[in-house]
Amino acid sequence: MEAVPARARAYVACTVLGALLCLLPLLAVHTSWRAVALLALLYAGCEQAAARWRFAGTFYPVLLAAAFLLPPPAAALVALPGVLLSRVDQRPRRLRRSWRAAQLVLGVWVAGRVHWSLGGRDAVVASDFPYALVPAGAAVLAFCLVLTALDGGIRALAERVPVRRAWRGLFVRSLAPVVVHGLAGLMMAVLWRSPYGPVAALLVLLPMCVSWWVFTQYHRERAAHQATIRALVQAVDIKDEYTRGHSERVGQASVMIARELGMDDERVEVLRFAGILHDVGKLGVPTRLLRKDGPLTPEERRVIELHPEYGHEMVRGIGFLGEARAAVLHHHERLDGSGYPYGLRGSQIPESARVVAVADAFDAMTSTRCYRRARPVPVALEELQRCAGAQFDPRMVSALVQALARSGWHPAVTAEEQPRLPAPAAAVSSRPGARG
Predict the structure, then answer these.
(1) Which of 54, 107, 160, 409 has its CB surrounded by the most CB atoms within 10 Å?
(2) Contact at 8 Å (CB) between 108 and 20?
(3) Distance (Å, whole) CA 96 – CA 166
(4) What is the mean pLDDT of the chain?
(5) Domain HD-GYP: where (predicted)?
(6) Are 327 and 413 in the same domain?
(7) Beta carbons within 8 Å of 328's beta carbon, 6+ residues apart
């Protein structure tokens, strides 16, 4: 607990106190304690299953069903057993468990208050659709707002995230899954109040559990993809210290070009992978050539020019990369056919490779290398435009120019973080990105 700042502990204590105040009216509440016990047991079972099978996230439908069925204090109580009995891997465990319990109690209580104040209870009992969607929707929004507001606060205090960034995007990212869980919770509540009773309500959880499992599998697969790419990029960065961070920046510039061209999110992600992995073949190039301070001999250049083929051999078995594999192989081809490794011309060069070629050359020119200093962004763009049509696809160059004009260039890993060495004049190449 000593690692948690005092102000964060105070924030957690205030949240716990607020949760206790929400639960105080329990003794005066007239409700079905059988329903409270059943829902609490069901939620605890869901949490235990999630921990055992390592599902991602928290299962909210039962909590939101409680908010739609029960008075707010009773609904808030449903969350306690499941959270207090759940497994917590990170320390301090007691503080984290208390925080999560208080957060959910407050979220469910507020959702319940909003739902009841809008007449949602009567709409659920009467199965009055579509009117029942209005109070339920407001309750779900309130629930999501409370959780994200509290999360932003703890991020700002415990992780020392700047206040302006602590809440940025939290609500928007959380809203879609919470709304889906809210719809399932409303279906549970309506069926619970129907003549078929709680057993029918449990049937709603079956498709939700299946979708939750599918989402978790996707989450795990995506995490494995990211880990694979991260390991490959780190290996390249260790081998070629003068281009450290280059891969991430090329991935970022590739994303900017792809979005400017109107590509869908899936292709944008593939182009990001392509940019990040374009130089992975350098793992097969002798380190002494990558770190050479002077100009390369023709023989040394031929060795370095094998890196696209090395890279393609390394990634061609990774199925999720899709067209990114073609970009790894062909990102040094030129429109006029003078590139390598195969001397492809114009439209023979895959579109993904034409995107990465521009992104690669742009970052190469705006970064300090062992053989020359960085050029300003406007100078680099002028050079790209000068070479458009011969070396680069004019569409890709134009897309990058427009994207930078609108958003600027703010790389996650900057060129200034690289070592700045004096550049021998004879080593400066006239071809953008000549060393890749």
Answers:
(1) 107
(2) no
(3) 19
(4) 83
(5) 221-416
(6) yes
(7) 274, 277, 278, 280, 281, 308, 311, 312, 315
Alpha-carbon dihedral 435, 269, 141, 83, rounded to 10 degrees: -90
Q: What ranges in 54-132 are assigned the alpha helix state H?
A: 61-69, 72-85, 93-117, 120-125
Least confident of 32-41, 57-66, 262-271, 425-434: 425-434
Task: Let me know: does 343 contact 294? Beta carbons within 8 Å.
Answer: no
Strand partners, 345: 336
- Under a CB-based contact definition with an 8 Å cutoff, are residues 188 and 206 in contact? no
In this structure, the answer to whether residues 190 and 267 fall within a common structural domain is: no
| Residues 177 and 269 reside in one and the same domain | no
Q: Looking at the structure, do residues 379 and 239 belong to the same domain, yes or no? A: yes
Number of separate domains in the chain: 2
Note whether 131 and 228 are same-domain residues.
no
80 lies in the same domain as 178: yes
Claim to verify: residue 120 and residue 177 sit in the same structural domain: yes
Q: Is 87 part of a structural domain of the chain? A: yes
Question: What are the tens digits of pLDDT across the range 261-287?
Answer: 999 888 998 999 999 999 889 888 888
Binned at pLDDT 50, 70 and 90, residue 418 comes out as very low
**Cβ-contact 237, 321 below 8 angstroms:** no
Classified as helix, coil or strand, 305 is: coil
Helix pair angle (170-193, 61-69), 10° resolution: 60
Q: Is-above-0.85 flag for pTM?
A: no
Residue 187 is part of which domain span? 6-203
- Other C-beta atoms within 10 Å of 407: how many? 11
User: Of 173, 203, 233, which residue is a domain's last?
Assistant: 203
pLDDT tens digits along 213-222: 666 666 677 7
Q: Measured on CA atoms in the order 420, 422, 424, 428, is the torsion positive or negative?
A: positive
Considering the domain boundaries, does residue 242 fall inside one? Answer: yes
Q: What is the DSSP letter of 349?
A: S
